[in-house]
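A reminder before we start the practical. When you read a complex entry, don't treat the lines as separate problems. The point of joint prediction is that each chain is placed relative to the others, so the output describes one connected object in space. Small molecules and nucleic acid strands, if listed, are placed in the same frame. In the example below there are two entries. Take a minute to note the order of the lines before looking further.
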Amino acid sequence: MNTLHVIKIGGNIANDEKKLENFLANFVQLDEPKILVHGGGSSASDLCKKLDIPIQMNNGRRITDKPALDVAVMVYAGLINKNIVAKLQGRSCNALGLSGADLNIIPAKKRTGTEINYGFVGDIEAKSINNYFIRRLLDEQIVPVFPAITHDTQGQLLNTNADTIASTLSIALTKHYNVSLIYCFEEQGVLKNIKDPDSWIPQLKKQNYLDLKSEGVIHEGMIPKLDTAFEALKQDVQQVHIKHAENLLNNTGTELSL
Amino acid sequence: MNTLHVIKIGGNIANDEKKLENFLANFVQLDEPKILVHGGGSSASDLCKKLDIPIQMNNGRRITDKPALDVAVMVYAGLINKNIVAKLQGRSCNALGLSGADLNIIPAKKRTGTEINYGFVGDIEAKSINNYFIRRLLDEQIVPVFPAITHDTQGQLLNTNADTIASTLSIALTKHYNVSLIYCFEEQGVLKNIKDPDSWIPQLKKQNYLDLKSEGVIHEGMIPKLDTAFEALKQDVQQVHIKHAENLLNNTGTELSL
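Here is the predicted structure of the whole assembly.
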């Protein structure tokens, strides 16, 4: 089977012109087939503030009401996605931006039945991903670029976490490819000490992670990302790395294993 | 050759939930292959106002500076495009939103050498359109949905008039299809008297149009649309109609001929 690279970048890269250019210069050198998934970070919240759209929180969790969803769609699926696609085309990489609604690629279910009503947030499953079109596109040397937007298949767009989209796409494609999933972020890897950027762990086994988590060593903000990453490994994704965006082509960063 | 329908809707439909749903209910009934092109109308200007981005004009022509372009990309390629795609998917129509940058479908040239600097505005030519991917998509029963956004192939997104995109795509595809181009707008057809909505002309020949134009009968705002429409006919588009969006499936409206 061919190796498929699924790369996820966060808003800290997507929203910074210089970091994004540096990242894309490396990304285009990566062997195809490949997929890019991007978050939007704080850019949607920034636009909400400018538009006086209140950012609703409940127990520390963000609520995506209709105005907040519209902003997420504009910023993630519009501004950031189309700029990345244009920049990749400028580097002769045949990119295609795809929200989960386009080609019905990522059907989602609006989150319900939770204590908190999260609003227009979509939960996704690997078995629902529309592999057929993803494979057709990859076979044509097309590079799909996914923002953090899905849909409920009934006409409603939804916001879905970009880390989750990257891991779910990876899991869905393991039947057809050896999938290498790389989460790019602003540190060299998973840190033992959040205050020491050099404390990154080269190899992180699941049990090791669980121990570090229970000891409170792993930074709170990393836990959902790492849980999602280990789930990908459990569901047959071949490799998962967490590394700095500038090291995309280097053999550094944290490699996870079960 | 198969008949290809290229339908253009303006912002008055795209921005009105009810009108859009009515239009899409008809659009999905139209035989495939088909393409939808949408404008955004005043919605980008409305967002500019909310964001205190000054709308720059020069001799009555709008200047698309960087902030105005970002808003156009957010609204046209993001919010409006993805909402239309999601709604079409909700009606079992396999839609795919495509800015001109996606798959390098519509390469454009930034307008230069004019007396006025229009900013990030792209001019397009039928011979540059990437027919290969459009045909591959249509062959897969995919319905492409185009916002008024193109790119310069060097990484820069550009704003291009949606009427022009519709006619240029139509012209580019005449080698492979009998193309029927339909401009949907808020009147029953081209009006002899702008104040009388019933004064629409069922058949409009080019010479007849030129006469009415020189007599000042044709409303100023219709002239660029009609010039673009007659150019499409001249360049082998089989049929061009201008009609009310609600009459998409009816045999009414203005039919143009050379």
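Discuss with your neighbour: The first strand of chain A starts at residue 3 and ends at 9. What might explain this?
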